[in-house]
Amino acid sequence: MIVALKSTSTNEQIAHLENWLKSRGLTVHISRGEYQTVIGLVGDTSKIDDDLLSGLDIVEKVTRISEPFKSANRKFHPDDTVVETCGVKIGGGNFAVMAGPCSVESREQLCNIAEDVKKSGASVLRGGAFKPRTSPYDFQGLKAEGIELLLEAKALTGLPIVTEIMNPAHIDMFENVDIIQVGARNMQNFELLKELGKTNKPILLKRGLANTIKELLMSAEYIMAGGNEQIILCERGIRSFDGYTRNVLDLSAIPVLHELTHLPVIIDPSHATGVSRYVKSMAMAAAAAGADGLMIEVHNNPSAALCDGPQSLTPAQFDDVMKAVEKIRMVI
Ligand code: PEP
Ligand code: MN
Asked: What is the pLDDT of residues 17-37, one digit of tens each?
């Protein structure tokens, strides 16, 4: 339920209404926008009489929200959410590029790539320490050591780091990680989402391989229900029948999500296409369609990468993509 307040309402009146709503057992979200303050209510709103609320002096309009996602709903929070870490902002007109290898392989590999992507304008370093691999015989990541190496690369470059978590029992290991990634395969790992809701870390939530936009938003809702509202959504391609690309990049998810939610939306053209030569055009298209950022895999020697080499850009190719994306951003 949404309660839009009149612009004349005072802080005292708002606080009074807030306390009353809380006393009815509801969770109250107040969003103070430039032009209007909106109160979002989560919980059993059937106890609330719409007419009584609409009749209050400070209330302009009461609306019941039909969508199952409440906290993530743009109706709850009309302004864009800006997620911030180490001075890097994502959303609300702030565009951020996260780049780095699929998996952390060694100090030398990671630090070289980190320096290169920074020079090209990336603002966050990515790198998998725990890798969700289809085959148990494939490289599973350097795990805790990978996180240590990411922290070393952060100390070297100043870039904040994003890395994937797969197991709620590992949360303590992510204490110094700046953005925790929930990968496509874990988008509906609800126990993991609940634990992440208790943290105060920005979460990069990737859309599942075969999940709807509504399901993605419901997963964000799981995290938000725990009190953590710093979520970046990531479209990384969905499964379809065509084999020329690894997945099908749903670029329409950008305007749809921007309409439905206030959370920032980034695009991962690397996992979406699975082919390095298609990454540039999809990165440009994502920027043109209004994405709030990109996540791109970069490797100093893609043909020797332990994971996702075919979709990884060399640092030189990444630099070229960054220049092209910048041009698109200037145009729009
Ligand atoms: C990744 O970012 O390395 C990754 C495994 O991505 P996804 O979860 O989108 O497959
Ligand atoms: Mn990968």
From this structure: 999 999 999 999 999 988 889
**3-class DSSP state of 232:** strand
Does the beta carbon of 100 sit less than 6 angstroms from any atom of ligand 1? no
Instruction: Give the contacts of 303 (CB within 8 A, at least 6 positions apart).
Output: 309
**Residue 238 per-residue DSSP state:** B
Q: Which amino acid is at 132?
A: P
Question: Are the CB atoms for 287 and 281 separated by under 8 Å?
Answer: no
Which residues, other chains included, contact 148 with Cβ-Cβ below 8 Å and sequence gap of 6+? none
Residues paired with 295 in a beta bridge = 98
What is the rounded distance in angstroms from the CA atom of residue 206 to the CA atom of residue 265? 10
CB 72 within 8 A of CB 221: yes
**What atom in ligand 1 is closest to the CA of residue 131?**
5
Which residues are close to ligand 2, an ion, with C-beta < 5 A? 102, 308
Measured in residues, the chain has a length of: 332
Distance of alpha carbon 286 from alpha carbon 267, whole angstroms: 6
Cβ atoms of residues 271 and 234 within 8 Å: no
**How far, in Å, CA of 60 to CA of 54, rounded?**
7
pLDDT at 43: 87
Q: Which residues pair with 233 in a beta bridge?
A: 205, 265
Judged against a pLDDT cut of 90, whether residue 110 lies above it is answered with yes
Range list of H helices, 158-292: 190-197, 213-225, 253-260, 269-273, 276-288
| Angle, alpha carbons 108-109-115 (nearest 5°) | 85
